[in-house]
C-alpha cells in the first residue's frame, strides 16, 4: 500500500457520500491490474500448451512450468498484493520471502530425501 | 499554535488513524507467511505420495483439462476483480468497491461449486479419499485450499456488509485490505496447485 493511500484514508475517505476521489493520483485506469490479469492468463495458457504438447523432454518441461509458476506468483505479489509499495521498512516482504524459503526447503527436501527410498528398504 | 490545538481536539479518541491500522496489515502478512508453511507441508506430502496409487486411479486418468482450466480462470479473474475493488478503495468509491467485492464473491462461489462437483465426480468413480495414499494427499491439499476459498467468501461478504453500513474509514479500509490480501494469496496457492498437481498430473 502506498504512502498516499494511507494518509488519504486517514484524511477521511467518506466515498459513499461524496463520491469524490480522495486525491487525483489514483483516478486513472487501473493499468497495473489489467497488465497483471493479461499476464496471468497468458502464462496459464502457455503452461497448459507446454504440458499438453511437450516439445521436448519431460524434465525440461517441468523446469519451465515451475519458472512460469514463479512468474505467476510474482504477478500476484507485485500487481495485486502491491508488495513493493509500503511505508516504512518492508517487514512484510521479509516475512513472505521467509515463508517461500521454508516452502522451498520443505518441498525440495522431501523430494530429495525420497530419492534415497530404494537404498534404505 | 491554534491550528495544532484544533487538530488535536478534532480527533476522536476512540478512532485511530490509518498508521495504526497498518500494524494489522503487517500482522496479516505474518499470518500469510505461516499459512504458506501449512501449504508447504501439504505440497511435500502430495509430491512424496503422488505415485502411490495402490492400483487405483492415477492423476492422468482422473484430471480433466476443461474442469481445472475453468477453475483456474475463475480464480484468476476473481483475483483481478478483487484488485479492481482495491483500486476503487484507493479512489474512495465505496459503491464500486462493494460492487467489485460482490463480483469477486460470485466468482469465488462458482469456483467452490465446480470444485465440489469435481470431488463428487471423482468419488463416484471410486476415487475416494480412502482409496490410495495419492488420493488422501490430493484431497488434503486441494480440499484445504477449497476450505480457505470458502472462508475467504464469508470474510469478503462480512467486510462488504460493514462497508455498506460504515462506508470507507480507516478500520473498514484495513479490513478490506486484509481480506483482499488473503484472496490474492489463495490465488498464489492455486497457481502452485495448478502447476504441481494438475499440469504435472496430466503430463503423467
TrEMBL record, chain A:
Protein name: Cytochrome o ubiquinol oxidase operon protein cyoD
Molecular-function annotations in GO: cytochrome bo3 ubiquinol oxidase activity; proton transmembrane transporter activity
Organism: Thermoflavimicrobium dichotomicum
Keyword terms, alphabetized: Cell membrane, Membrane, Transmembrane, Transmembrane helix
Cell compartment(s), UniProt: Cell membrane
Classification lineage: Bacteria, Bacillati, Bacillota, Bacilli, Bacillales
Entry GO CC: cytochrome o ubiquinol oxidase complex; plasma membrane
Membrane topology (UniProt): Multi-pass membrane protein
InterPro entries: Cyt_c_oxidase_su4_prok (IPR005171), Cytochrome_c_oxidase_bac_sub4 (IPR050968)
UniProtKB/TrEMBL annotation, chain B:
GO biological processes: aerobic electron transport chain
An MF annotation (GO) of this entry: oxidoreductase activity
SUPFAM superfamilies: Cytochrome c oxidase subunit III-like (SSF81452)
Residue intervals passing through the bilayer: 24-47, 67-85, 97-116, 136-161, 181-201
CDD domains: Ubiquinol_oxidase_III (cd02863)
Keyword RNA-binding: no
Signal sequence interval, chain numbering: none
Domain Heme-copper oxidase subunit III family profile: 1-202
Keyword Amino-acid biosynthesis: no
Keywords: Cell membrane, Membrane, Oxidoreductase, Transmembrane, Transmembrane helix
PROSITE patterns with a match to the protein in the record: COX3
Family matches, as Gene3D superfamilies: Cytochrome c oxidase, subunit III, four-helix bundle
Topology term for the membrane: Multi-pass membrane protein
Chief localization: membrane
GO cellular component, one term: plasma membrane
Lineage top rank: taxon: Bacteria
Family indicated by similarity: Belongs to the cytochrome c oxidase subunit 3 family.
PANTHER family according to UniProt: CYTOCHROME BO(3) UBIQUINOL OXIDASE SUBUNIT 3, CYTOCHROME C OXIDASE SUBUNIT III
Stated name of the protein: Cytochrome o ubiquinol oxidase subunit 3/cytochrome aa3-600 menaquinol oxidase subunit 3
Organism in which the protein naturally occurs: Thermoflavimicrobium dichotomicum
Lineage: Bacteria, Bacillati, Bacillota, Bacilli, Bacillales
